[in-house]
Amino acid sequence: MEGIFQRYLSLYRPLITTLNELLSTYELSYSLWQVIFYIKNNGPSTLVEISNQYDVEKPTITRRVHRLEDLEIVEQIPGKDRREKVIELTERGEEIYKVCRIKITNLENRVMEGITDKEQRIMFQTLPKIRSNLMKREEEK
């Protein structure tokens, strides 16, 4: 189906802009939210685990984590290896996650108005398959 990428990309930028505005109350951006979301859903995590999940360089994740530490949203805890940085949410981070999760869920519900449950399920199942196909292609290079 020609034009699917254009349709996706025309949605991406307005969505990220809206999310950034929604998160700005807490001095957050969507890129910082990704780290919070990952830790909340996977427990204490290393920088490598987070960078692998989002296919982002480790120094980029390190900068995000430093910013979240400055905001007292995450903290470093001892890992198995002294060289390994393990990050977890602070109590403040847990509270901010709860509030922002509600706001993001409300946004998700608003933008999905008029889209049937079946259409939503199909999209929810299809997007990871597209990502997987892209990642396989990158691995082949």
CATH homologous superfamily, by name? Answer: Winged helix-like DNA-binding domain superfamily/Winged helix DNA-binding domain
* SSE order, one letter for each helix or strand: HHEHHEEHH
- Number of separate structural domains: 1
Please name the CATH architecture. Answer: Orthogonal Bundle
CATH class: Mainly Alpha
The main sheet comes to: 3 strands, antiparallel
What is the arithmetic mean of pLDDT? Answer: 92
**Contiguous uncertain segments of 5+ residues:** none
Structural class: mainly alpha
The rough form would be described as globular
Helix content: over 70%
The side-by-side strand order for the widest beta sheet comes to 1-3-2
Give the percentage of residues in beta strands: 5-15%
Distance between the termini: 24 Å
Given the structure, what is the number of helices?
6
CATH topology: Arc Repressor Mutant, subunit A
Radius of gyration: 17 Å
What does this structure look like?
There is one protein chain. The chain has a single domain (about 10-115), classed as Arc Repressor Mutant, subunit A. The protein has 6 helices and 3 strands; from the N terminus they run ααβααββαα. It has helices spanning about 5-25, 30-40, 45-55, 60-70, 90-110, 115-140; strands at about 45, 75, 85-90. Strand 2 (about 75) and strand 3 form a beta hairpin. Helix 3 crosses helix 4 (about 60-70). The mean pLDDT is about 90. It comes from Oceanobacillus piezotolerans. InterPro entries: HTH_MarR-typ (IPR000835), WH-like_DNA-bd_sf (IPR036388), WH_DNA-bd_sf (IPR036390). GO terms for molecular function: DNA binding; DNA-binding transcription factor activity.
